[in-house]
Amino acid sequence: MNLPSNRIARWLFSAGISAALSTLALAQEPAAGPSSEPGLSAAQIVEKNVAARGGADAWRKIETMVWVGHVQSANVAVPTLPFVLELKRPNKTRFEISAMGQVAVRVYDGASGWKLRPSHNGKPDLQPYSPDELKFAHEEQVIDGPLIDYRAKGIAVGLDGLDEVEGHKAYRLNVRLPSGVSHHVWVDAETFLDIKYDRETRNAIGQSATVSVFYSNYKSVEGLQIPATIETGVGMTGLKNKLVIEKIALNPPLEDGRFSKPGTQGRNNAVSIGPDVAQTVRETGRPGR
């Protein structure tokens, strides 16, 4: 991020967070399409994906999650930007990113969202989410993504084909959200873990572009498979931003006030997520309220 600019913060929320948590979605009963295993349907691919990620039952037990890590970007002078991402069902999110002693925050309480960032005059600039940002946040399936319990979420998927993604054969799924918006998702044909996700987005001046998100370096966290590296790029520029997750806490206590409008009186800003992760969170710094 080019603080006080919100370029990377906006990218992380609209692409990186979505990427990290959505693991592609699925399925209305099988659509016809090519497969590396004859007869394998879209529904079966998703079933294998859910199993590879740790199983639906294990994911259903996760009510809150905290990620701590850093961003690496070719678009900024600072080598790494520390971040903390807090998530709570059904779709509450709080994201903080730090650079050069300044902190930018994006928070969504399930209905409304706000962006708090430094400004040129030194005072925090607080703005509500744009209509596009609200729509995107509302559609997000935090914690487990749209695959788990997809029928209850009203999500459908069709199998479009079999592609090669960075040297891996991958099933290309056409994922349709309840809003009617469709995305493409690629599931590794060998591991059945997500490896790529595409979505359309619009920049600050309304131009449309395709955001591509790549997942790699999966780690086991209490039996759940979570990508520790998430790379995001726009269009064909070849420049990618890398999200590196260093610590993950499952089911830490997170009060609803954590996701309220920044500056609200009586908020509890403490995060209780265990000594190791808590220490990392403290080292990233938090904005004053």
Structure description:
The protein has a 13-stranded antiparallel β-sheet, sandwiched between helices. The relative contact order is 0.21. It starts with 6 loop residues before the first helix and ends in a 5-residue tail after the last helix. The chain has 289 residues and is of the alpha+beta class. It has one domain (7-284): outer membrane lipoprotein receptor (LolB), chain A (Clam). The protein has helices spanning 7-21, 42-52, 56-60, 131-139, 150-153, 275-284, and strands spanning 64-73, 81-88, 92-99, 102-108, 113-117, 125-128, 156-165, 168-176, 182-188, 194-202, 208-221, 224-234, 240-250. The chain has six helices and 13 strands. The radius of gyration is 18 Å and the shape is globular.
Count of DSSP H/I helices? 6
Radius of gyration: 18 Å
What name does the CATH topology carry? outer membrane lipoprotein receptor (LolB), chain A
Order of helices and strands: HHHEEEEEEHHEEEEEEEH
Distance between the termini: 22 Å
Largest sheet: 13 strands, antiparallel
- Helical fraction: 10-25%
Rough outline: globular
Domain count, please report it: 1
Which sequence of strands runs across the widest sheet? Answer: 6-5-4-3-2-1-13-12-11-10-9-8-7
Classified by CATH, the class is Mainly Beta
- What fraction of the residues are assigned to beta strands by DSSP? 35-45%
CATH superfamily membership, which one?
Answer: Lipoprotein localisation LolA/LolB/LppX
The structure class reads alpha+beta
State mean pLDDT (0 to 100 scale): 78
Give the low-confidence spans: 1-36, 265-289
Assigned CATH architecture: Clam
What's the β-strand tally? 13
